[in-house]
C-alpha cells in the first residue's frame, strides 16, 4: 500500500513563495489505478514528483509498504526509488541508445548481469509489443511505440508503483487507446499499482479505478470512478464539463460568418446537448420545414447517464423556412443559439 500523509511543498521564498502542495493525504491500495486530475498549475506534477522524492516535501510522509521513504537517504532511498517506475508525456528516451539499450539502462545502473538484463529486456519487449524494434533507435519509432519503450524501461526493475505524468497527452486518440489498454494489461498481469496524472477524461473513464481532483495544491476528493462520474454535481465532473467557450466556430466559417441571411447561405447554430444525450428534432425540422441540419463540430462528454456539451450545426435551406425552423425550436424550448449565416 502507498500512503501520502499531510504532504506539503512550497517553492521560492519571501514574496515569491508559492505553496504548490498543501496537506495532501491519500492511500493507494495494491493494484489500484488512481487518476489525479486538475487544472494547469494545480500541483499535479509536483505531487507525482513528491511520490518518488524527485521533489522533497517540506512536510509530511510518503509511506510505501510500511516504510516512510521521506526519511531515507543515500542507498536506502535509491533502493526504494528503483521500485517506482515513471513515464512522461514526451517519453524521455535516450536518442543515442537503441530501444534494447534504453530499456536495459535502469538494470545497468542497478548493476545487474548481462544475462539477466538480456532476458528481462526480451521479456519486456514482448510484453509491450515491440519485440521487432529492439535494434532500432527512438527516432525511427512512432509516438505510441516510443511510449511502449518508456513503459518497458519503467518496468525494468520490477517496480510496485508506476507513475504516469500525462503519458498519453502527446498521442492521437487511437494510440492513446492502445497505450491505455497496455497499462491496463500490465496492471492486471503484474498487479502493479498505477498513479496517473491526466487532464483527459478518457483516461479516467477507461482505466482508472479511482479518481481524485487537485485544485490550488489541495486534494479535494478521492472516490471510485463510478461513484464520482455518476454525480453530475461532483467537483471532478464539473472540472471536465464542456463549457460554452470550449466550442468555437470552425475557422473558415468564423472568417466569413455574416449577421444576415445571404443567398445560398445556411444558418450557423450552436446547440446545447440535452442531458439525455439525444437530439430528437432533426427529422421534424427536415419534414416540417425542409431544412437539413448538418452537425459540423462537437464538444461533448458523457458521465454515467449524463451527457453534456455543445454542437455547432448548419441549418441548410430556404431563408424563410430556416427562420420558421428556428422559431419552432425556440417555442419548444430547445436550447439553441443562432450565431449568424455562412455562405455555402
Ligand atoms: N521548480 C519550481 N519552482 C518554482 N515554482 C514551481 C516549480 N515547479 C512548479 N512550480 C509552481 O508550482 C505550481 C504547481 O505546478 P505543477 O507543475 O505541479 O502543476 P501542474 O498541475 O502539473 O500543471 P500543468 O498541468 O500545467 O503541468 C505552479 O504554480 C508552478 O508554477
Automatic annotation (TrEMBL):
Task: Give the matching CDD domains.
Answer: ABC_MetN_methionine_transporter
Please list the GO terms describing molecular function.
ATP binding
Q: What is the lineage of its organism?
A: Bacteria, Pseudomonadati, Bacteroidota, Flavobacteriia, Flavobacteriales
- Keyword Membrane assigned: yes
Q: Does the keyword Ion transport apply?
A: no
Species in which this protein is naturally found: Paenimyroides ceti
Q: Name one Pfam family in it.
A: NIL
What is this protein's record name? ATP-binding cassette domain-containing protein
Please name the InterPro entries in this protein's record: AAA+_ATPase, ABC_transporter-like_ATP-bd, ABC_transporter-like_CS, ACT-like_dom_sf, MetN_ABC, MetN_ABC_transporter-like, NIL_domain, P-loop_NTPase
Amino acid at each position: 500500500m502507498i500512503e501520502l500523509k499531510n504532504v506539503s511543498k512550497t517553492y521560492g521564498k519571501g514574496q515569491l513563495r508559492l505553496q504548490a502542495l498543501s496537506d495532501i493525504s491519500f492511500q493507494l491500495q495494491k493494484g489500484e489505478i488512481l487518476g489525479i486530475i486538475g487544472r494547469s498549475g494545480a500541483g499535479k506534477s509536483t505531487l507525482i514528483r513528491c511520490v518518488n522524492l524527485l521533489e522533497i516535501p517540506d512536510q509530511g510522509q510518503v509511506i510505501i509498504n510500511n516504510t516512510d521513504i521521506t526519511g531515507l537517504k543515500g542507498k536506502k532511498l535509491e533502493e526504494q526509488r528503483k521500485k517506482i517506475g515513471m513515464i512522461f508525456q514526451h517519453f524521455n528516451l535516450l536518442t543515442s541508445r537503441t530501444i534494447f539499450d534504453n530499456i536495459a539502462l535502469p538494470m545497468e545502473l542497478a548493476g545487474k548481469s548481462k544475462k539477466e538484463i538480456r532476458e528481462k529486456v526480451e521479456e519486456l519487449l514482448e510484453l509491450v509489443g515491440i519485440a521487432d524494434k529492439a535494434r532500432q533507435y527512438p527516432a525511427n519509432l512512432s509516438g505510441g511505440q516510443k511510449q511502449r519503450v518508456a513503459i518497458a524501461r519503467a518496468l525494468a526493475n520490477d517496480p510496485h508503483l508506476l507513475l504516469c505524468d500525462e503519458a498519453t497527452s502527446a498521442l492521437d486518440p487511437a494510440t492513446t487507446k492502445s497505450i491505455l489498454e497496455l497499462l491496463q494489461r500490465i496492471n492486471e498481469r503484474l498487479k502493479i499499482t498505477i498513479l496517473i496524472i491526466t487532464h483527459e477524461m478518457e483516461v479516467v473513464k477507461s482505466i482508472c479505478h479511482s479518481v481524485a481532483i487537485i485544485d490550488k495544491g489541495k486534494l479535494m476528493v478521492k472516490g471510485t470512478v463510478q461513484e464520482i462520474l455518476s454525480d453530475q454535481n461532483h467537483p471532478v465532473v464539473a472540472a471536465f464539463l464542456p463549457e460554452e467557450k470550449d466550442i468555437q466556430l470552425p475557422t473558415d466559417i468564423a472568417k466569413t460568418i455574416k449577421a444576415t441571411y445571404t443567398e445560398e447561405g445556411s444558418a450557423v447554430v450552436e446547440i446545447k446537448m440535452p442531458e439525455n444525450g439525444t437530439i430528437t428534432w432533426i427529422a421534424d425540422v427536415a419534414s416540417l420545414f425542409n431544412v437539413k441540419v448538418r452537425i459540423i463540430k462537437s464538444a461533448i462528454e458523457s458521465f454515467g447517464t449524463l451527457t453534456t456539451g455543445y454542437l455547432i450545426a448548419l441549418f441548410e435551406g430556404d431563408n424563410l423556412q430556416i427562420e420558421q425552423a428556428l422559431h419552432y425550436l425556440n417555442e419548444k424550448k430547445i436550447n439553441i443559439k443562432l450565431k449568424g449565416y455562412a455562405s455555402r
